[in-house]
Design goal:
Blueprint: H1 3-32, H2 42-65, H3 78-101, H4 106-125
């Protein structure tokens, strides 16, 4: 498995555990009502599971499984995939920080970082998406 796929998948598993923890706290609070402020963690729970776990896992598996090229770099421009990893994680962290500390402006920067990460992944993977020719 390529190094970048390992990074994506391991990060996604960390986000899965984090999102599961936030979800469990929110659900427990709904039933027991021990700390109403926990409901403020719902946007973090959604962000972590949707972009942190689901998207990163899909990126890691896609980078690993897409057909290789017949060039010197069979997986294409790995620098773009690294940029995708860094920008996606930076965006997620900025959104979490903005949600916790109500820091003005960080949401736009975080969302922009996520969009740049997704765009970098698309550009870095585009040439590997090709039809299979069956003889």
């Amino acid at each position: 498995m390529p190094r970048l796929s390992v990074w994506f998948i391991r990060a996604s598993l960390v986000y899965l555990a984090t999102g599961f923890t936030f979800g469990a706290l929110i659900l427990a609070n709904k039933g027991l009502g021990f700390y109403p402020v926990v409901w403020n963690a719902l946007p973090i729970h959604i962000e972590v599971l949707l972009l942190g776990w689901f998207v990163q896992f899909a990126f890691g598996v896609a980078f690993w499984i897409l057909p290789r090229l017949k060039q010197d770099s069979p997986r294409g421009n790995e620098t773009l995939i690294l940029v995708a990893f860094v920008m996606l994680n930076l965006g997620i962290v900025l959104i979490i920080v903005e949600t916790i500390f109500k820091a003005q402006g960080l949401e736009w920067i975080g969302r922009l970082a996520e969009v740049v990460g997704v765009a970098a992944f698309i550009v870095g993977s585009w040439q590997r998406v090709k039809p299979t020719i069956v003889p």
